[in-house]
Amino acid sequence: MATNPIDLTRNRIPEGVRHIHFTAVCGTAMGALACLLKDRGYRITGSDANVYPPMSTFLAEKGITVMQGFQGSNLDPAPDLVVVGNVVSLGNPEVTAMFDLGLPFVSMPQAINRFAAEGKQRLVVTGTHGKTTTASLLAWMLQSAGRDPSFLIGGILKNFNSSYRFGGGDAIVIEGDEYDTAFFDKGPKFLHYPPHAAILTSIEFDHADIFRDLDHVRTAFSDFLRIIPPDRLLAVYDADPNIADLTRNPTCRLERYGKGAESDWRLGRVAIDPPRTRFEVIRKGRFFGRFETAMTGEHNLLNALSCIALAHELGLSPDEIAGGLATFKGIKRRQEIRGVRNGITVMDDFAHHPTAVRETLRAVRPFYPDGRLVAVFEPRTNSSMRKVFQEAYAVAFDAADRVLIRIPSAFHKVPEADRISVETLVADLRRRGIDARLYPDTDAILDALPPTLRPGDLALIMSNGGFDNIHQRLLEKLLLKA
């Protein structure tokens, strides 16, 4: 047995790496990185506790062998390097075998830096909300302008039909996650990416499984601000009090964006003309340009504004920026229309934090004026199942006409004393005049919902998981209803 189970002398990338093994390969970012390295000519193998579609199919299509379950034999023959996912703990059979064999190992961010970001300008998008959308839009703006960027993002960009790309240009767009890095490195992932330029969208309490409270979250982002070189640009949202507090004495170049009269970048006139939104941008008090987008909601206009600020920093013209915005197709699972049956629209969204739920509902409401907004919500994350958000969720659904809530199937992951009361939530929503109902499982929702929907309605499904394929199953039931 290894005498020192956490031998950090092996935490390095040796010369001549050809075979790389990913332990916990089926995570969104891990799978994307594995495919990127496969495309670059490395031999890639991987393993995970649960291997199932769509990631298993995605990896198989790339020719990547994925082994079911963690076991020491997965490292035979021995790879040149092991990339260890952050869901893996000390004592995992592959980790034990990795140490016993004396194999070099790295975290995912370390691998990104060496194999994807080395020699490139890191454009890092951080914040509690909006990272995926903002990073995706920035990547497409650069591509549309002919900059041939690389990117690694926690979502599937419809313009590329991919969550990753290794381009020939100078820049790589990275979604900077505040989540911890690995069992041997408990710091946030984004601390591994000193940026050429960065965006900070928001700071709120989230990830209750690793952060104690809001102050703990603020400390992580404060640490990120300290790694930004003094001459580099950080674009920050102007109406977030936590950001304002952390950036009172900036150590880098700072530009604020939002709606504030004194901000460097602010929204001008906005016109909603479904399915497009048109808006003006003012820079330092002067008209900068007119833009349009298929994205909905003020929060997405603010995300776009942050990208405009960074794109301008990188030398893109207003016309180039406008071209990227106008042709951006969005991201799968972010206000994604899964289908329309009998005049009823079924939309999928990743929203699970109460702020994201509120802003998503507000965003889509104006685009469906002739029907009802029916929200179907699954609290699934460690944070969303906790009572810390009890009051926030009670006011997050105000833009909805009806709300259907599934009793969480993973409540066992949260101590009973810390759990949100979904019964209380439903009662609070009813007191606010919303037709709210609680259901024991997905099947019960699918039995109750289709007969009540009518033409013009929007059924907005919100979950960060698969939700038992409720979207497709609902569409099938609506087809049978015709």
How would you describe what is shown here?
The protein is globular. Helices cover 30% and strands 26% of the residues. The strands form 4 sheets. The protein has a 10-stranded mixed sheet, with helices on both faces. Strands 18-19-23-20-21-22 form a 6-stranded mixed sheet, sandwiched between helices. It contains 14 helices and 23 strands. The protein has 482 residues and is an alpha/beta fold. The longest helix is centred in the middle third of the chain and has 16 residues, at 298-313. Strand 4, helix 3 (93-100) and strand 5 form a beta-alpha-beta unit.
Which tags fit this structure?
globular; Protein-Tyrosine Phosphatase, Chain A; six-stranded mixed beta sheet; 3 domains; UDP-N-acetylmuramoyl-L-alanine:D-glutamate ligase; single chain; ten-stranded mixed beta sheet; Rossmann fold; alpha/beta; 482 residues; 26% strand
Low-pLDDT parts are none
- What portion of residues is helical? 25-40%
Tally of separate helices: 14
Number of strands: 23
Q: Which percent band covers the strand fraction?
A: 25-35%
Rg, nearest Å = 23 Å
Summed over residues and divided by their number, the pLDDT gives a mean of 92
First-residue to last-residue Cα separation: 65 Å
What order do the strands of the largest sheet run in, or round the barrel if closed? 8-7-9-6-12-13-14-15-16-17
Write down the CATH topology of the largest domain: UDP-N-acetylmuramoyl-L-alanine:D-glutamate ligase
Overall morphology: globular
The CATH architecture of the largest domain can be named as 3-Layer(aba) Sandwich
Structural domain tally: 3
**How does the helix and strand content classify structurally?**
alpha/beta
The CATH homologous superfamily of the largest domain is named Mur-like, catalytic domain
Under CATH at level 1, the class of the largest domain stands as Alpha Beta
The main sheet comes to: 10 strands, mixed
